[in-house]
Amino acid sequence: MRLVLLADTHVPARARDLPAQVWSAVDEADVVIHAGDWVSIDLLHKLTARSRRLVACWGNNDGPDIRAQIPEVARITLDGLRFVVVHETGPATGRERRLAAAHPDADVLVFGHSHIPWDTTTPRPGDAHPLRLLNPGSPTDRRRQPHPTYLTATIAASTLTDVELHQLPTATSTRPHREPIRRS
């Protein structure tokens, strides 16, 4: 199962549309996960129409029209993996421990808000499987990051594999890059 993970798209406030590379990834994905800050209901409708399956939550910049259509926290089980999707997770300090305690039912927690790509795991008391935390960054609003970004991943045999950060071109760069994003 192929996944595309997005957050903080801010369309049309930060970009007119998603980059072509992102739309191509959406077209190839089995599931698209969006962790909030859409800004426009039009993008929600467009992504819903183009995705085979969309799992999404709203963010702090999303108005009542978006909040009426998607939840603040989305939950889904995909091939045995329990996903929780939220926008804001609070300060980076203590994030892993705080979220493992707040979401003991999750195997993978996808979040946004910071626009900073994030990929960590944290142990959970009494559970042999750590919680995986993923933030895809933003494909349209890089803020202080060197590139706009999104994530892809694969689920095979109830295991999340091939988590890859895709760096999109900036105004001064014309080629995408891929780099590991491990943070501790």
TrEMBL record:
Residue numbers spanned by region Disordered: 120-146, 165-184
Keyword Metal-binding: yes
Species name: Parafrankia irregularis
Cofactor or coenzyme needed: a divalent metal cation
Domain of life: Bacteria
Domain Calcineurin-like phosphoesterase: 1-156
Residues spanning the signal sequence: none
Family, similarity comment: Belongs to the metallophosphoesterase superfamily. YfcE family.
UniProt EC number: 3.1.4.-
Enzyme class: hydrolase
Alphabetized GO MF terms: hydrolase activity; metal ion binding
Protein name as annotated: Phosphoesterase
Gene3D superfamilies documented for this protein: 3.60.21.10
Keyword Lipid biosynthesis set for record: no
Keyword terms of this UniProt record: Metal-binding
